Amino acid sequence: GRMDPLGIELGGLGVFPTRRKPRVIWLGVVAPPPPALEHLYQRVERAALTGDYPGAPVRETYRPHVTLGRVQRRAVLAGDVADVLDRVDDTVAFQADRMVLYRSRAERGGVRYHSLRIIPFEGVWAV
Asked: Is 66 helix (H, G, I), strand (E, B) or coil?
């Protein structure tokens, strides 16, 4: 199918898995997410489930976000992270013109990301 560039608005910091034990800090897509983003998510999830990308995690809930960083437990106190989350309330908007599929691997120095495929949003593509 064809997908045009996608307008996305981000706002609202959050953490995974919980504020008491933050591991990942993220900036969420302002609700409700654009229908095209939900459609893209469903197509990627279907592709992962059909075996095109073995080992891809299946999420229980869809929370579109941009990962800002990872927290090393000994370096940052959970209270400090919660304080930052409560103070930031700006939003940012941008046009997404491609999707990049990454593989992440935990290594000694942290998590490394490797680009597997770039899919432009202008033209014909299939997932």
From this structure: strand
- 28-45 pLDDT, tens digit per residue, is 999 888 888 888 888 878
Residue 53: is it exposed, middle or buried by C-beta count within 10 angstroms (0-12/13-18/19+)? middle
Nearest to 119 by CA among 44, 64, 65: 44
- State the Cα–Cα distance between residues 23 and 74, nearest whole angstrom: 11
Do 67 and 100 form a contact (C-beta atoms < 8 A)?
A: no
How far CA 106 is from CA of 28, 64, 85, 93, 103, in Å, comes to 23, 22, 25, 30, 10
- φ, ψ at 101 (rounded to 5°): -95, 120
Rounded to two decimals, the pTM is 0.69
Question: Which residue is associated with the tokens 């202008």?
Answer: 122
